[in-house]
Amino acid sequence: MILSVLFWVFLFILFYTYAGYALVLWFFVGLKKLFGKQKVLLENKDYEPEVCLFVTAFNEKDYIGQKVKNAFSLDYPKEKIQYLWITDGSNDGSPEVLEGIDQLEVHHQPERRGKMHAMNRGMKFVKAPVVIFSDSNTILGKDSIREIVDCFKDPKVGCVAGEKRIIQHDEEAAAGAGEGLYWKFESWIKRKDWELNSAVGAVGELFAVRTELFEDVETDTLLDDFIISLRIAQRGYKIAYAPNAYAEETASLNVKEELKRKVRIAAGGIQTIMRLKGLLNPFKNGLLSWQYFSHKVLRWAFAPPALFLLFIINLLLVISFNSWSASNFYVLVLYLQVLCYTAAALGWYFENKKVRMKVLFVPYYFVMINYASILGIIRYIKGQQSVNWEKSKRAG
Fold it and tell me: Please, what sign has the CA dihedral across residues 340, 344, 347, 353?
């Protein structure tokens, strides 16, 4: 009986996390479009505030040229953009290169104390009412600033989340194909979250906040984008989602590099849950609590262990029944799991052999990111995750 209960609990967690929540969102958004008020972009053609394009960079000399060129090409009055770079700890010559470029405001200190410390420090130099955070290795869409500013026409919006896009190639490795598919699905959910109520968090590649709403964040924070955006949402503001404001970057070089990145994100996810416990109170946060629990908490904390425990519980159940007939539901689920893990193992094998079999990329990537989440949870509990980001190598 206990095994059966655990089996159904774990199966429900996995189904709801990876499919059920998306279906429920789609249903409620559809109902809202039929019977409720749809979000309408407020008309205010004269709304063109000054903005600060804020970039924190640690030893990013190789990306400076393309990033600065991209920043100067964005469709927004140049005199209304403050180009701010914080290069704390960089020792590759990037501060000197940046300081030699007109229009850039560069602040540097030799000590490296982590990205969040650099952001807290850099915010004291922001002069504009809207600050747009972007990573140095990403390329922004030409209309990104205008798309973000349009969202801030609504006074209820305190943060705007841009879209992350992975540049993919036909010869893409498993990391690239899996990461690209993951972000397409994630972007769809973000869009539905916003259409229903509010997006749940933002990505560091591109997001913006009202400068007056920014509050210093603990310097040991691992996921600055989520903490900053969700704390603003916790204060009653909406996180808008602007899919046409996008940041492009190449995928991780390989699965090993993607694993390294996902482990850190998973550790940061658990840290975020611990620091935003109040966001789980539906009496105070309403619909946002359900969105946050369904979209983030389950995926960060519950689904990864449920995935691997389900296999063990399922195997014990089948053994206890002493029946291997496919007509038995438990046996059928076990066979499906074995098929999935076999495909993942083959994906791992062929990836190491440099053989591109895209049909195996999805199960391989799915198992890999959940394994990384387990490692991240363990790393957070042990307190072994450094606040300093170890950059993952990206595909060329």
Answer: negative
**DSSP letter, residue 394:** B
DSSP per-residue letters across 38-106: PP-PPP-TT----EEEEEE-SS-HHHHHHHHHHHHHSSS-GGGEEEEEE-TT--SSHHHHHHTSTTEEE
Nearest to 334 by CA among 11, 1, 2, 17: 11
At 285, is the secondary structure helix, strand, or coil? helix
Give the pair of three-digit tokens for residue 201: 């968090």
List b or e across 275-293, with b for residues whose CB sees 16 or more CB atoms inside 10 angstroms: bbeebeeeeebeebbebbb
Local structure of 383: helix, strand or coil: coil
Each residue's pLDDT expressed in tens, for the chain with a length of 396 residues: 899 999 999 999 999 999 999 999 999 999 998 887 766 656 666 789 999 999 999 988 989 999 999 999 999 999 999 999 999 999 999 999 999 998 999 999 999 888 999 999 999 999 999 999 999 999 999 999 999 999 999 999 999 999 999 876 555 555 556 677 888 899 999 999 999 999 999 999 999 999 999 999 999 999 999 999 999 999 999 999 999 999 998 876 667 777 888 898 999 999 999 999 999 999 999 999 999 999 999 999 999 999 999 999 999 999 988 777 777 899 999 999 999 999 999 988 887 777 777 778 888 889 999 999 999 999 999 887 766 666 655 555
3-class state of residue 30 by DSSP: helix
DSSP class of 362:
H
Alpha helices (H) in 207-360, listed in sequence order? 224-234, 255-275, 282-285, 287-292, 303-321, 329-352
How many angstroms separate the CA atoms of 393 and 396, rounded?
9
Q: What are the residue ranges spanned by the domains of the chain? A: 1-38+155-396
Please give the C-alpha separations between residue 344 and each of 25, 356, 366, 393, in angstroms, as whole numbers: 29, 13, 8, 23
Instruction: Give the pTM.
Output: 0.90
Structure tokens at 322: 């002493």
